[in-house]
Amino acid sequence: MIPFNKPFFTGKETQYIQEAVQSGKISGNGDFTKRCQAWFENHYGFEKTLLTTSCTDALEMAALLIDIKPGDEVILPSYTFVSTANAFVLRGARLVFADSGPRHPNMDVAGLEKLISTRTKAIVPVHYAGMACNMDAIMALATQYNLYVIEDAAQAVDSFFLKKLSSSKEAIQKRVPLGSMGHFAAFSFHETKNIISGEGGMLVINDPEFIKRAEIIWEKGTNRAAFWRGEVDKYGWVDVGSSFLPSEVIAAFLYAQIENLDKIQKQRTAIWKRYANELNMLMDKGFAQLPVIPEYATNNAHMFYLVLDNADTRDRFIKHLKADRILSVFHYLSLHKSPYYADKHYGNELPWADHYSDCLVRLPLFYDLTTELQTKVITSVKSFFGV
Ligand SMILES: *Cc1c(COP(=O)(O)O)cnc(C)c1O
User: Fold this and answer.
1) Which residues contact 82 (CB under 8 A, 6 or more apart)?
2) Which terminus of the chain, N or C, has fewer Cβ atoms within 10 Å?
3) How far does residue 202's CA lie from ligand 1's centre (Å)?
């Protein structure tokens, strides 16, 4: 069976874990945690990063940091993972769902402004498949209405927003890292993402005003991080918080992955491009839609998907590949139709979120997908359409 995903190990993980163990300190905020955080801060210019045990945790920290209270409204796409929503619902927020766009599952900024009310506190764009949302439009609305922006960058490591710097014909584009534009951003290192630590995540704090409190919330509501730096002579309970920091075992694992990021990205990109080249004809023939990379986005090769005509075709497609011993999988079920939130939803129609729920299917994409195995996938996909 060709799996949908297979975690990639660089070979250095166990060595670094052993180093962490031998150092005598394997609880959180140790040497490897600091090395990982420094790498992200230096490499992408993030103001401050904190490793967390998941992206879910990082989103929950962001919700605490912006003081979400019952009745506050948060705008997010309906076509996303439950963690994007749970983090805010846990604090009593009311969710306001944005629809996806016709060409991309990302939130459609055209419909965004009319979702803003006097109760709106934050917008949470999700960079689906690691491709940027229209951050210029989102940040402009946030500034105009005084809202927080929390980027769900779970899938978006090493991907960029291409910002136009001039309005002349030859507009200069600047590569702005995803995760560096919102007040906060949350990344995931779950084993299905590009770089991994089994479970794992990271909160990015781009507004320096929040750094001190973020460290406190991260360490169970104590000022322990400041204590370790010698800034206070004893540490105590100073705010709410939880245990959001991962152990050094996880950070050591992640550091080995970070060191190999370029190699991983190169390989994943080659696989992604081969899918695109080989399957482009499906689009020409009108059988399926292939991923569209928005003109302001880069592709970090997190995911390769097809959008088929309807749910029935997709079910038959998945069965066809399964018969060829290949696992392809659908993705999110619109949150506004979920058993938990359907009766709380405001009721705005979200046809594109429903469309991707019904019609999107993801193909196997992982570091160890050999050319031979990928050929099998491509052949099976083409045979489904009789081409
Ligand atoms: C993977 C993912 C998450 C959750 O990440 P965890 O690290 O598993 O908590 C959240 N949002 C999106 C968009 C994701 O893809």
Assistant:
1) 335, 338
2) N
3) 11
Q: Separation of 166 CA from ligand 1 center, angstroms?
A: 35
Residue nearest to atom 6 of ligand 1 (CA): 55
Question: Which of 112, 117, 116, 59 is closest to 88 using CA atoms?
Answer: 59
Burial of 12 (0-12, 13-18, 19+ CB in 10 A): middle
The minimum-distance atom of ligand 1 relative to the CA of 201 is 7
Ligand 1 center from residue 193 Cα (angstroms): 9
For residue 373, the one-letter residue type is L
Cβ–ligand 1 distance for 84 under 6 Å, the answer yes
What is the atom index within ligand 1 of the atom nearest the CA of 199?
7
Pairing of strands 94-98, 73-77: parallel
Pocket test for ligand 1, best of 127, 187, 190, 300 (most atoms within 8 A of CB): 190
Verify whether ligand 1 is closer than 6 Å to residue 80 (CB atom).
yes
CB 201, CB 210: distance < 8 Å: no
H-helix or E-strand spanning residue 136: helix 135-145
Answer whether 188 contacts ligand 1 (Cβ < 6 A): yes
Q: What is the pLDDT along the chain (387 residues), one digit of tens a residue?
A: 999 999 999 999 999 999 999 999 999 999 999 999 999 999 999 999 999 999 999 999 999 999 999 999 999 999 999 999 999 999 999 999 999 999 999 999 999 999 999 999 999 999 999 999 999 999 999 999 999 999 999 999 999 999 988 776 667 789 999 999 999 999 999 999 999 999 999 999 999 999 999 999 999 999 998 998 899 988 899 999 999 999 999 999 999 999 999 999 999 999 999 999 999 999 999 999 999 999 999 999 999 999 999 999 999 999 999 999 999 999 999 999 999 999 999 999 999 999 999 999 999 999 999 999 999 999 999 999 999
Q: Six-digit token pair at 101?
A: 């766009």
Report pTM: 0.97
> In residues, how long is the chain?
387
Which DSSP string do the residues of 194-232 spell out, in sequence order? SS--SS-EEEEE-SGGGHHHHHHHHBTTB-HHHHHTTSS
**Closest ligand 1 atom number to CA of residue 200:** 7
